[in-house]
Specification:
Elements: H1 4-32, E1 39-40, H2 41-45, E2 53-62, E3 66-69, H3 88-99, E4 107-112, E5 115-120, H4 122-130, E6 135-143, H5 147-153
Parallel strand pairs: 1-3, 3-5, 4-6
Antiparallel strand pairs: 2-6, 4-5
């Protein structure tokens, strides 16, 4: 497989690529006057009347359905590319583990309509997206909200 040095070099190249994507995304968003931060679950919940929640358990989720976060919208952009240097060490560890085919635990998500928000696993999702991974295992808790309100927000269930 890879030597530790090769693994580190590959991971650094991938991290720099992810940061370049984030920089491009910031520039494009600025030029188009669009928002580039991750959607906050709190923002969505301020627009909804929720009626409890229930666990969906462990399931496989399409990575592109993960659109926001519960708490880390300053660390990653809307495509989960790293925005701050504080993310580097953890990001590199996750990528190295992935390259060595080590087990990575499922992420934890909240589901609202057909959108998912990250509770735990931001770096794993960032690495998965950067590597082109289509699906990820997750423990999911669904928040119950009226379908009509979800439709108005564009996140109605399927």
């Amino acid at each position: 497989m890879y030597s530790p040095l090769q693994l580190h070099q590959i991971a650094m190249i991938e991290y720099e690529r992810a940061q370049t994507q984030a920089s491009r995304g910031r520039l494009v968003a600025m030029l188009l006057r669009k928002r580039n931060h991750l959607l906050s679950l709190d923002t969505i919940l301020n627009c909804l009347t929720t009626h409890g929640q229930h666990s969906l358990g462990l399931m496989t989720v399409a990575v592109d359905k993960i659109v926001g976060t519960v708490s880390r919208n300053q660390d990653f952009d809307r495509n989960f590319m790293p925005l701050r240097a504080v993310t580097m060490e953890r990001w590199l560890r996750i990528l190295k583990a992935r390259l060595k085919n080590e087990y990575l635990p499922p992420v934890e998500l909240r589901k609202v309509g057909n959108a998912y928000f990250v509770v735990d696993g931001h770096h794993r999702i960032s690495v998965a997206r950067e590597q082109g991974q289509a699906f990820i295992d997750a423990y999911v808790t669904e928040l119950d909200a009226p379908e009509e309100e979800l439709r108005k927000l564009g996140i109605a269930g399927i």
